[in-house]
Amino acid sequence: MLIVLHLALMIAAVISFTAGVGIAMFARKKKNWLKLHKAINTSGVIIGLAGAAMAFANVLTSAGNHLSGLHHRVGFIAIILFCITLYLGFYSFKAANKTAVRTTHRWSGRFSLIAMLAALIMGLKMIGVL
Ligand code: HEM
Ligand code: HEM
Question: Taking the model in full, what pTM does it have?
Answer without folding.
Answer: 0.93
